[in-house]
């Protein structure tokens, strides 16, 4: 990292298990660098929300072709959605984007089973968000300079290769990775208290960062919810297994490429924003010393 200083940083990856405490660390980096966050988990949840709005009453298994080990053709799925939607008028509305509904339907099949969404779907949703950010005028970035914090992408070696290629097309590189470390057992205990705002995607914790009156988002006032993929211990353990088998090799691959990795603990005796900032920036600033 010696070659470039803090002012040259443009791309930061934040990696860690789901429930390890990434969001408070991302909030700290976003404030420190003035960067926007792209979270593939949030992007998928938005598409799943659009899919949920059509009130599909069938089983998601009906969208899957067991022989092909892939989804049925889009036209077949669209027909199925039309037949089994509780609110077919939503599907018929011109503002309903059928591609988003389809993506939400396919993502839900994996996300709510505690599994990662396949790379083919994930590359598309990420590249769209990335390209829109870089195509937008700088004034709309809300910052004096353009830069991104990537949360939850990449999660596989395939995604890491895809990212590095996309970045090189924009003459960019990953400046550093912030790895948030927490053991599985603490995650399982802690994640039961996690709540998310369905409106603005803010993340809360019943004990460490409580929503207003125990149930309302402090930013937009919506009633916070437990994530569908946080609902049972079995789901949490499946996701942890996905991390061990896919994200850990992905991180090793990026390290081998020479990308600096800063590891910080995901649980601090004092979880206040000031303590998180000291932990994160105290470690990150060593990159430029
Ligand atoms: P997160 O909010 O980052 O915990 O992501 C929630 C879920 O979205 C994950 O458990 C996966 O099912 C899916 N997801 C998010 N990002 C990715 C990714 N990069 N690759 C595959 N699946 C993802």
In the sheet with the most strands, the strands line up as: 2-5-1-6-9
Bound compounds, each kind once, are: adenosine monophosphate
Q: Helix content range of the residues, please?
A: 40-55%
The level 1 CATH classification of the largest domain is Alpha Beta
* Major beta sheet summary: 5 strands, parallel
Q: Total domains, how many?
A: 2
Task: Provide the CATH topology of the largest domain.
Answer: Rossmann fold
> How many DSSP E strands?
9
N-to-C CA distance: 10 Å
- Unreliable stretches (pLDDT < 50, length at least 5) are none
Shape: globular
Q: What's the SSE pattern?
A: EHEHEEHHHHEHEHEEHEH
Describe this structure in words.
The chain has two domains: 1-35 and 147-192 and 231-289, P-loop containing nucleotide triphosphate hydrolases (Rossmann fold, 3-Layer(aba) Sandwich), CATH 3.40.50; 39-142, no CATH class. The model has no long low-confidence stretch (mean pLDDT 93). The protein is an alpha/beta fold. The radius of gyration is 20 Å and the shape is globular. The termini are close together. The strands form three sheets. A five-stranded parallel beta sheet has the order 2-5-1-6-9, with helices on both faces. Strands 3-4 form a two-stranded antiparallel ribbon. Helix 2 (40-52) crosses helix 5 (98-111), helix 7 (157-169) crosses helix 9 and helix 8 (184-191) crosses helix 9 (233-256). The chain is built from ten helices and nine strands. Residues 18, 40-41, 44, 110-111, 115-117, 122, 152-153, 155, 159, 229, 239 line the site of adenosine monophosphate.
């Amino acid at each position: 990292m010696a070659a470039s200083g803090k002012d040259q940083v443009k791309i930061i990856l934040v990696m860690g298990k789901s429930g390890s405490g990434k969001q408070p660390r991302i909030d700290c980096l976003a404030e420190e660098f003035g960067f926007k966050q792209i979270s593939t988990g949030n992007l998928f949840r938005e598409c799943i929300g659009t899919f949920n709005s059509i009130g599909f009453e069938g089983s998601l298994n009906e969208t899957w072709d067991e022989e092909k080990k892939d989804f049925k053709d889009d036209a077949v799925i669209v027909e199925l959605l039309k037949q089994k939607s509780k609110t077919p008028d939503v599907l018929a509305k011109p503002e309903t984007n059928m591609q988003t509904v389809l993506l939400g339907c396919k993502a839900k099949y994996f996300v709510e089973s505690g599994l990662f969404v396949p790379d083919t779907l994930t590359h598309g949703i990420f590249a769209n968000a990335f390209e829109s950010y870089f195509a937008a005028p700088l004034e709309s970035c809300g910052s004096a300079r353009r830069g991104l914090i990537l949360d939850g992408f990449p999660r596989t070696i395939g995604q890491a290769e895809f990212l590095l290629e996309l970045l090189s097309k924009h003459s960019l590189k990953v400046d550093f990775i912030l790895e948030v470390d927490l053991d599985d057992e603490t995650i399982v205990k802690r994640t039961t208290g996690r709540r998310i705002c369905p409106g603005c995607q803010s993340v809360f914790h019943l004990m460490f960062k409580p929503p207003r009156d125990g149930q309302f988002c402090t930013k937009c006032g919506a009633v916070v919810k437990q994530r569908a993929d946080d609902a049972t211990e079995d789901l949490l353990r499946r996701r942890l297994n996905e991390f061990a088998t896919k994200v850990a090799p992905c991180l090793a691959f990026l390290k081998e490429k020479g990308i600096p990795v800063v590891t910080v603990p995901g649980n601090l005796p004092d979880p206040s924003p000031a303590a998180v900032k000291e932990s994160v920036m105290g470690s990150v600033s060593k990159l430029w010393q």
